[in-house]
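Journal club prep — side note

Before the paper discussion, L.F. wants everyone to see what a predicted structure for a comparable chain looks like in token form. Sequence:
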Amino acid sequence: MQRSTDRILTTHTGSLPRSAELTRLLVARDQGAAYDPTALTAAIDGDLARTVAAQLDAGLDVINDGEVPRVGFSTYVTERISGFGGEGHRKPTLDTIKFPDYAAIGAKQIAEGGEVARVWNPPVAQGELRYDPEAVDARVELDAFAAALAAEPRQPVETFVTAATPGIVSTTLLLDEANPHYRDHEEYVLALAEVLRPEYERIVAAGHVLQLDAPDLAMERVIMYGDESLDVFLDAVSLHVEAINRALVDIPKDRVRLHVCWGNWQGPHQDDVPVAELLDRLYAARVGAFSIPFGNPRHEHEIRDLAAHPLPEGALLIPGVIDVTTNYLEHPELVAWRIEQAAAAVGDPSRVIAGTDCGLATFASYEFVAQDVAWAKLAALAEGARIASERLFG
């Protein structure tokens, strides 16, 4: 994994805006409606080419495919793993329970947006989980990404590819109580580690850094574990980290970065677990970098907790310095200041790569930031990193 040896490198968290046509086709497939597979392939290829170019236009150093082939950052696994079916119902967030006016506004926005992906009612695990070799799997995505990179005359410093963790799959695609193959959540999440392992290894073998998306390690405090004690939630965090480590047993940790977040909805977030409660447990993950949101009003001040809870030896920090839930466009000087705060907390600017709080389009049709603003935010990220680099490296 590249370090910021003479300047602050820039990246993002994974999902980027999709075209309206691609969104329509992905949502249709997700809902089991009729769609044209040839048109979907063409839309994916077109979006991939534009997404690779747009990241480089914005000045980013470490880029990916924008997750444009996927309907959602976690639910895509149902397209390549058998054993899921039916419809689940995730618990509401504490935000929507405690702030009903806020919940009503959010429901109205979703309703007015038309057909949407299955974010809160995805399938559940009804049978034994098996990676389906006949399904569209990671190889198809990796080949498409490789083709888009080959067609682009400019090349990034490094590339990454995202994948869902056992924990976020288990808390999003819930375990059916009638499933005869898994006794409880622990058995389910550890089984997912084995099922997902080949995909992780394939991504690294293709030459990319693997980014594991694990919002469950913070976000589920206000969803699945919203009515449980903090200790119960933290025990779940440790279990989910154990599952990650089992899946990574044959992958060098310096080829893996872990993204953790509190959810990228524009809500109060008043019940978010403090980052200081999480860091020591997160550090047990066998990864080389930690992507944590610090570019939002609820958690920006917590960057100082990195000083009291130092990163594991050699590990990098990818601090979120761009908020992905509002259309406020960050000033490059603010971005630079946030990067400098992260460098001070870590104690070494070469161990900092500037990033975003979360994805800008985690599910097709489920976006909070306008597409033109999203790209402007990434350009501000790059400019802020340039300013910070001048101050940090001279």
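L.F.'s comment for the group: The chain has 13 helices and ten strands. Keep this in mind when we get to the figures.
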